[in-house]
Specification:
- This protein has about 280 residues and is of the alpha+beta class.
- It contains 6 helices and 9 strands, in the order βββααβββαααβββα.
- The strands form 2 sheets. It has a 6-stranded mixed sheet. A 3-stranded antiparallel sheet has the order 7-8-9.
- It starts with 19 loop residues before the first strand and ends in an 8-residue tail after the last helix.
Length: about 280
């Protein structure tokens, strides 16, 4: 079994794409579009007995309102970097999705074809083939208005390549709608107040842990440690956060602070609690 982190570098795709662009709500003059791809590709082409890979893409991006709308183009470049990394970030959205799909058909087949053919030569019948030959990858994204002139972008990747369970993780980014530039953590949260922000986050982690364990006995960092949460480090501000109109949302992916079975931690801190600790421009 071959497992990779696919958010930025590797995704399995196929031919026969069911593609479309769906127009959505806009921010000022620019509108939000979504390019989709949904396909199942067989390892041995049209052989229905061979393993398959399901790939589903949903890439949200801005449709510039005119040829002079360079800001939307800058935003889209950041969106493509977040969705799949730098490799194809300069391509137009439809071409971007199609190129990912076409190139990664080869990745899937290079990963498993040799092993599969060896099993066939050794007489393994289709019913007894290892299940990990069947891959499933889905990347979805949303683009929504955030606080003031900020775009909130969320990309979620689901991956199953065999093993005990599938993996799901997300990447969030805030983009300045006036410049197209992503907002970094250190420029968003006031340095002098990061201890207060960590205090607020700790309270929310404790609350979420109690909910997952169906208890109310966890009340401190030591209590979290006793239940397998934040074992390797103290409370930290995650890279994934969204600046929304009414709150700041923080995200810890599975394994980031807790065992897999606890899932991701999505923490919501309302503005009346956290606004004093944001930099003034946010």
């Amino acid at each position: 079994m071959k497992t990779r982190n696919l958010l930025f570098a590797s995704l399995i795709a196929g031919t026969g794409l069911l593609a479309g662009c769906v127009e959505g709500e806009g921010y000022r003059e620019a509108t939000v579009n979504v390019c989709n791809a949904d396909t199942i590709v067989r390892l041995l082409g049209d052989d229905p007995s061979s393993p398959s890979c399901h790939i589903k893409l949903s890439f949200a991006y801005l449709n510039p309102y005119s040829e002079k709308d360079s800001i939307s183009e800058a935003v889209n470049y950041t969106l493509k970097q977040t969705f799949f990394g730098d490799l194809y970030a300069k391509l137009a959205p439809r071409t971007f999705v199609d190129t990912i799909a076409s190139s990664l058909i080869g990745d899937y087949r290079r990963d498993v074809l040799e092993s599969y053919r060896t099993d066939v030569e050794n007489g393994v019948i289709p019913e007894n083939m290892p299940k990990w030959y069947n891959y499933d990858f889905r990347i979805t994204s949303t683009l929504e208005k955030g606080r003031d002139s900020i775009w909130n972008y969320q990309v979620t990747t689901f991956q199953y390549t065999g093993g005990a369970h599938p993996n799901t993780w997300s990447k969030w980014v805030n983009i300045d709608a006036l410049t197209g530039r992503p907002l970094e953590k250190d420029e968003t949260f006031a340095t002098a107040d990061k201890a207060e922000i960590r205090r607020l986050i700790l309270e929310k982690i404790i609350e979420a842990t109690n909910e997952r364990l169906e208890t109310d006995t966890v009340t401190s960092l030591e209590g979290l440690h006793a239940n397998g949460v934040l074992l390797d480090e103290d409370v930290f501000i995650p890279e994934n956060f969204l600046l929304k109109d009414y709150e700041v949302t923080f995200l810890y992916n599975p394994y980031e602070i807790a065992p897999y079975y606890m899932g991701q931690f999505e923490l919501h801190i309302p503005n009346d609690e956290i606004l004093p600790y944001l930099n003034a421009k946010q």
